[in-house]
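Inputs:
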Amino acid sequence: MVIFGVLLLTFLLIHLVPGDPVEVMLGESASMADREVLRADLGLNQSIVFQFGNYLTKLAHADFGQSIHTKTPIIELLKTRYPATLKLALVALFIGLSIGLPLGIYAALKAGQWQDLVVTLVSVRLSAMPAFWLGPMLMLIFAVWLGWLPVSGMESNTSIVLPALTLGLGLSAILTRMTRTSLLEVLNDDYIRTARAKGITESNVIIRHALRAALLPIITIVGLQMGSLLAGTVITETIFSWDGIGRLLVESIEKRDYPVTQACVLLVALSYVLVNLLTDILYRLADPRVKFAH
Amino acid sequence: MKVFNVFFAIGLAWLLLATSSCRRDGVSAQLSREIVFAIGQAPLNLDPRYATDAASERVNRLIYQSLVDFDSQSKPTPSLAGWRAISPTAFRFTLNKNRAPFHYPTKLRQAPLTANDVKATYDSIALLQDSPHAAEFDNVKNIIVTDDSTVVFQLKQPDSHFPAKLIIGILPAELIALHHDFSHAPVGSGPLKLLSWRNQLSLQRVSDGQTISLLEVKDPTVRVLKLLHGEVDLLQAELPPELVKYLQTKPEVTVKTNRGANFSYLGLNMQDPTLKNLKVRQAIAYAIDRDAIIQKVMVFNTRAASAILPPEHYTNQHSLPIYAYQPALAKQLLLEAGIKLPLKLVYKTSTDAQRVRFATIMQAQMQAAGIQLEIRSLDWGTFFADVKQGNFQLYGLTWVGIKTPEIYGKALGSQSVPPHGFNRGRYADAQLDQLLAEEDWPSATAHIHQQLPYIPLWYEGQFAAMRQEINNYSPKADGNWDDLATISRYAH
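Outputs:
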């Protein structure tokens, strides 16, 4: 139902906004007759209901159609763009987790001390940095000044580092704050005190007992952030010339390339649904008390 | 606590490892012999029968050859062929003797292009339903090949400007017959040929094998950083002036400028009751300080404009005065027109940062003249749809690559209201129609300048920034990339 709702809403919205692919393709000098011929050729002269029904029928046969402008089969576009977004999202998530979790734990253990203050200040600053500022700053430092990395593009294996850092640092800031808060809530619980009284090492207390209990809100945040990352991070993809799904979606909207827009939105919606499902499964693994409803 | 310190150490080591391993790639990019040109928008379609975007047209000029081109005064001149009018409705084109062969990937055909290729190209445009250029050739009745190097275009109606329309790149007849996909696999006979088109468009110069790659980098700041880092060798236009000035301070970069010919203007809705009044239009023209805008926020060599076609155009016999900034006079004109101040107007523009900046400055300038400008910044599709539908009071746009005086008829003729032309302001003026029919361009230009159906702003200067080792490249007035046919890199 969610997917159908998304399809219907997207279809209606893109047909309601001003602009027309025929106008974009033929320009202003084309005759009315030529416009009508092309409109009929693209099936745009049919009623919206008929067009939507036709679209659903094709979709049921896994036929996304082709781009109105480039005539490229949309499945080919998605095959090249979505893996790029997925790769960027996974690396960004790895960076976010590998910085955010340890920092959050450290801040919780040093709560109220100067180390906590420093971590809090850094994470607040990081979460306040927009990608359109942080991205060029990282380029300036790591590419232009130090010469370690390419500025942008996808040509080399290391091209992913800066866009992933841009996304991952922001994510790490959120995770640091969330981990610290969640951990602080459980660190004073009786079972933690009991574990310490039993003589279990501090690292075991934190990792095996406290962190596991604090994991649920962190999983929620990670799930939500992963959904956003898979939806394509338009600004980061644009700044770093990363040919992902976000850029494809925005470009298709600009050109009124309806089939491409619909396919991108469908893929994004499917990603969200899938990530939500994975999040639910992770809940169950993190806390066996969580039951799936039938 | 030790375990957390280990976390930090691992994190730091990972970051350093990830970044230090990249050094080799950066250096190898610098050592590459190809010339990389960073562009803001990649070409969309390399089939000249379909291409309309500026990037595609600029690349197509290099991949294909056309029958006709334009000189520095925008007069049509022979390119691939010379021509002669044999009657008011017939033109004979004779192809040059020394013609390059098509860039076939195999040695399928080595002979140069012929009159048959010309006929096949223009015949196919007429048959294509979705070619944006098809309407331009509606007047063609017949194309006759008399021999391998001669072709005659017969027209339905007399059109003295017809040769200026023959600027479409010529395609090989055999491949047209096979419905070859020229949009992604172009086969032309120009100075450059396609090597590959994946993440970037790689072209090869036929004469010496030099590879030239066009890399799309949307963000202007990133284009500049890539130039400074040596990842790209060249960039042209589409940068805010502060970045151009920044580049001019860098010893490793050379910035070249040239005067531009692309005309920026304020469009007016002539059906709007307020804007119908000439005094109101004059007030708007006097309420903009063009010189201040040009000096402060535009690149060097930008010129204030008084007409669509620049002063050096062959039809401009006398230069027309620029509307100078006179806010007091503007206010007085508004009062004379019976307008209650402040006059509220809505100005529509795109979301492009530089266009929004212009709008904001004009908003401030017009305030002194008693005009309260409300800016509406819209995404391109919505903005342009509004402009074509006449859903605006004021809008800002630029005419790019205009060469022929026919633009006056297309943009201001009373028969050219969209969808029949570009008269987006719905201007109807019998006197102008008469002057345009008589092709009295100086009088028509003067009449337009006096009646102000649009407000002329400026011709934006052109510039190109390149690494110091790059030479034989300079920006052109219309922003074309023709010098990619001659660009070279100093050998170290």
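Remarks. Chain B touches chain A through 58 residues (CB under 8 Å). The radius of gyration of chain B is 26 Å.
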